[in-house]
Design brief:
The protein has 222 residues and is mostly helical. It is built from ten helices and two strands, in the order ααβααααβαααα. The longest helix is centred in the last third of the chain and has 34 residues.
């Protein structure tokens, strides 16, 4: 009798341990909302600068661009195992930033001209797939850029950062951000707006976390 009860208890503890990962189910919901707003409005703006015009089209950057969401998933799961507070903070930041982006897309829609693609090599095919899958209307701020910067920010503010995870996460995030320019999916101002958005939302998330902790400690002392 003891062994079955112990096994049942271990299964219960295991489920509770990994239950926070269910929060990542918000991603399909956000994806559906993105698809809803990813269509042209009456007015579509262009915010390209001379710097954007000087950036060449490099099809090889289609690879890091295309694995972006899996990279974000991997970072969130890594944060969960290292510090669940960082995981929650990142998930909340991503959700709020995405919703803010969607609202902006609905009232201020921008686009980036795409180059004419020639050839059938694997990288050109990946770029072609990206272009066909994603309409060029939801650009400012960049979701690729804000999420990539967000995991950098989360790691920087954590207590488990080290030389190895900094090299991997910073390096991959920067590569993804650069890929948005090189395959002509985003403008420089799209990235700048994304960075500012993360800085604002992440700070509010940290303040909310501290306020909740203070209120909880007060309730224990009451």
């Amino acid at each position: 009798m003891l062994i079955p009860k112990l096994q049942q208890r271990m299964q219960t503890l295991s489920w509770k341990r990994f239950a926070p990962l269910l929060g990542m189910l918000i991603f399909p919901v956000l994806g559906a909302l993105y698809a809803f707003v990813n269509r042209p409005n009456d007015q579509v703006y262009t915010i390209l600068t001379s710097l954007d015009d000087s950036i060449p089209f490099i099809k090889f950057f289609a690879l890091p661009y295309s694995i972006w969401i899996f990279y974000i998933y991997a970072c969130l799961v890594y944060f969960f195992f290292k510090d669940v507070k960082v995981y929650y903070r990142s998930l909340i930041t991503y959700t709020v930033c995405a919703l803010v982006c969607y609202l902006i897309y609905m009232v201020f829609q921008t686009t980036v001209p795409r180059p004419f693609l020639t050839g059938d090599d694997p990288f050109t095919q990946i770029v072609r797939f990206i272009y066909n899958r994603d309409q060029p209307y939801n650009c400012f701020p960049s979701i690729h850029c804000f999420s990539s910067y967000m995991v950098m920010k989360a790691l920087y503010t954590s207590n488990f950062r080290n030389r190895i995870n900094q090299t991997l996460i910073y390096g991959m995030s920067i590569t993804i951000i650069l890929s948005t320019f090189f395959i002509k999916q985003h403008a420089v101002l799209d990235a700048a707006a994304a960075f500012i958005l993360v800085e604002l939302v992440y700070r509010f998330a940290m303040r909310g976390e501290k306020a909740a902790k203070t209120a909880y400690n007060r309730s224990l002392g009451a």
